[in-house]
């Protein structure tokens, strides 16, 4: 598995994965992915040795040099590839980018997504809020989680 920048050629497969992973809510459309890439987000594709898209992740950045904030907008891994460390690799790559800019990082995660919550907590995130009925149309709640800004010298493993 290798990580590379997400490109337009990957979007069709991302949309397919969104429909599998987030069918009970509002999966992202192709236009949403295109808009994120056009806005300058840091998006990655996780590709197998035979160039199959196994997962994707994205980080949005706002602010100015010295005062950056980052938001994890999405992480998705195809069910056939879950449990193989792909989500962890994607998250670490997003956090490395945030650390280059010394950016605070936030995200939202479903309150019933225990494996994702554990992943985020292992990487320094803490729960800072609850968003009732955040995901639609399911009405599922989300935790807002945050990780303080770090410098690249503090990143381990």
From TrEMBL:
One of its GO terms (molecular function) is protein-N-terminal-alanine acetyltransferase activity. The keyword Ligase does not apply. InterPro entries: AcTrfase_RimI/Ard1, Acyl_CoA_acyltransferase, GNAT_dom, YpeA/RimI_acetyltransf. It comes from Saccharomonospora amisosensis. Belongs to the acetyltransferase family. RimI subfamily. Coiled coil: none annotated. Residues 1-150 form the N-acetyltransferase domain. Keywords: Acyltransferase, Cytoplasm, Transferase. This is Ribosomal-protein-alanine N-acetyltransferase. Pfam families: Acetyltransf_1. Its EC number is 2.3.1.267. PROSITE patterns: GNAT. The lineage of its organism: Bacteria, Bacillati, Actinomycetota, Actinomycetes, Pseudonocardiales.
């Amino acid at each position: 598995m290798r990580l590379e920048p997400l490109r337009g050629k990957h979007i069709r497969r991302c949309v397919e994965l969104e429909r599998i992973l987030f069918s009970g809510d509002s999966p992202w459309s192709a236009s949403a992915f295109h808009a994120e890439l056009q806005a300058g987000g840091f998006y990655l594709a996780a590709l197998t040795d035979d160039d199959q898209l196994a997962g994707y992740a994205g980080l949005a950045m706002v602010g100015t040099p010295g005062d950056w904030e980052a938001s994890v907008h999405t992480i998705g891994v195809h069910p056939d590839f879950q449990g193989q460390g792909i989500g962890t690799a994607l998250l670490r790559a997003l956090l490395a980018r945030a650390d280059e800019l010394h950016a605070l990082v936030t995200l939202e995660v479903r309150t019933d997504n225990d494996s994702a919550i554990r992943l985020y907590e292992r990487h320094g995130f803490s729960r800072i809020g609850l968003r009732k009925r955040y995901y639609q149309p399911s009405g599922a709640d989300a935790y807002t989680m945050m990780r303080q800004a770090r410098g690249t010298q503090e990143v381990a493993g």
